[in-house]
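Example 3.2
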Amino acid sequence: MSYLEAIILGLIQGLTEFLPISSSGHLEIGKKLFSIKHQAYDSLLFTLVLHLGTALSTIFVFKKEIFEILSSLLKLKIDYNTLFVLKIIVSMIPAVTIGILFQQKIKILFSNNLILVGIMFLITAIVLYIAGGIKNKTKTVSFKNAFILGVIQAIAILPGISRSGSTISLALILGIDREKAAQFSFLMVLPVIFGSIFKIFLDIKKTSVDINYLPLCLGFFTAFVSGFFACKWMVALVRKSKLKNFSYYCIFVGIISIFYGLL
């Protein structure tokens, strides 16, 4: 992988992980357009590094909330923060289950299949358009809502379905406060990301190949910096009810993907 490819893919991952436009879908498009071909080992390692970058950017953006949660857990207090953690655990159940059972099959199905990716982008566009017209409400995330959002997060492993877009949109449809919806959406993915990183790490340990560290560092740094600003921007956009604007972008990308896939 060249240095430029590493920077481009890091930028794509950082921006699209948080903006409601599907990071996995854009990475598939990026690999196809730039004809990026490399060994499975390199792909796994680079994916791990990109996920580390975006996970770290999430922690930096929500450092205050994470510190409060950890403080409550250490004090063994039953309060809003400890209940928040329990709700995140509930949201992980469908995500982990569906991920373990279907992730590899989905990866094979969507690999180099821009037509399917394009269709998923169009579905994301519809969801964002509907959610964009919803007025702000004041509900908090219940345990039932957490499980439902976990199911949606699991479905979002389909390239072209935006994880942040679909979970935040559904949270708004369920009547959850905008800021709480964004916070829960971004924090609920952290355990899943770290679980994915751990799985990739175990797969990598089975292979011994020389590593070119500079592309990895470039990808990590680009994903972290772009992810940090994208996450802060997305929280602000959710507060201002600007999700509908991204639906037009997803329609455009979806149509282009389908057209390119038919060539």
